[in-house]
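Hi,

Apologies if this is the wrong queue. I'm a grad student, and the batch job for D-Ala-D-Ala carboxypeptidase. Metallo peptidase. MEROPS family M15B from Alteribacillus bidgolensis produced an output file that my downstream script rejects. I'm not sure whether the problem is my script or the file. Here is the sequence I used:
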Amino acid sequence: MKNFTILVASTLIITGCSSNTDFNGDKENTEEEEAEPVAGDENESREKEEETDEQAVEAPQLNEKGELMEPESEQVLVNREYRLPEGYEPEDLTVPDIPFSFEEDHPKKQIREPAVKPLEELFDEASEEGLQLYAISGYRSYDRQEAIFAANVAEDGEKEANQYSAKPGQSEHQSGLAMDVSSPSADLALTDEFGETPEGQWLKDNAHRFGFIIRYPEDKTDITGFQYEPWHLRYVGKEAAETMYEKDQTLEEYYGVDE
Ligand SMILES: [Zn+2]
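Support response: The file is valid. Your script probably expects a header line. Output copied below for reference.
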């Protein structure tokens, strides 16, 4: 029975970022399960805090369209229910001075300014440890995600596209706070195997010291709703990253919206 449950759950899990199929990161069609407004959840949060003895962190607020009201927050929660506004583009996108897996200029080399130095420091320290990290894909615009999703729908139909492709607004890459990375030891691919490489292991143990989290851990797929992505680094700032690392929390758990 347990195996059956796991199997069912795994078929519902989708990927959160670009990979070989690029721009997957979507979800099931959730037309019917509109995100609930967060206002008024205060009492519930407080109860939860007492139960778990955890520090309360106020969940992100959504507008009447179900879009995040503070998309520029460094701790912004982006998932199926918490969507970035249509057309939101960070104003401080910058290309970090780190090795990329490709040479040409491309918007996906960018990440937001607050994450630039931390990411460069992370890469520097990994290099000093003899590890070889390469950046693969960072910022991705709403329009680009929309075009990709539309192309996938044209190719496979909406139902199937929903299984593997992100709808615009639901990709963390639009926030400018995510960067996919890999290593030659994983053939510079975005695959589960990266998590087993020395680079992947080092990131798991050290990313928080630079303000990053492994956003989609292997054992939290039922909470994040996204498949295991050892390559997807998300900047949240040092304090939040260390809290989540110490408490073994995802961003959903950090905000207490993992129910
Ligand atoms: Zn990603």
